[in-house]
Specification:
Blueprint: E1 5-12, H1 16-27, E2 33-35, E3 39-44, E4 47-54, E5 57-64, H2 67-84, E6 95-97
Antiparallel strand pairs: 1-5, 1-6, 2-3, 3-4, 4-5
Helix pairs in contact: 1-2
């Protein structure tokens, strides 16, 4: 079984659902993406980003096969979220988890 590296970021924003939907719609033109009212995911070549909406909070979960792929995934998601949420200036701090 291959080990998987994961990380998460909890982004405080009253627009969590809107930003999750924007991320999914933006990438679904090129990548498999799905989204509903409170959950979404995007399948990148480097890994998967799952998203969860809670009141005033967007939780991002990134998963990749190695540290380089995880860093790339975190960067792509954060850059796009920052661009969509430029008025809010979200704080996106990824916390890594041990391989599983």
């Amino acid at each position: 079984m291959d080990a998987t590296l994961t990380s998460a970021a909890r982004v405080a924003t009253p627009m969590a659902q809107r930003y999750m939907t924007q991320l999914c719609k933006h990438f679904e033109h090129r990548l498999p993406a799905r989204y509903g009212a409170t959950e979404g995911s995007i399948e990148f070549p480097t890994g998967t980003c799952r998203m969860e909406v809670q009141p005033d909070l967007l939780i991002l979960h990134a998963e990749a096969k190695d540290a380089e792929a995880l860093a790339q995934l975190e960067s792509v998601v954060a850059r796009h979220l920052e661009r969509f949420a430029f008025r809010d200036k979200p704080e996106i701090a990824w916390t890594r988890s041990a391989a599983r």
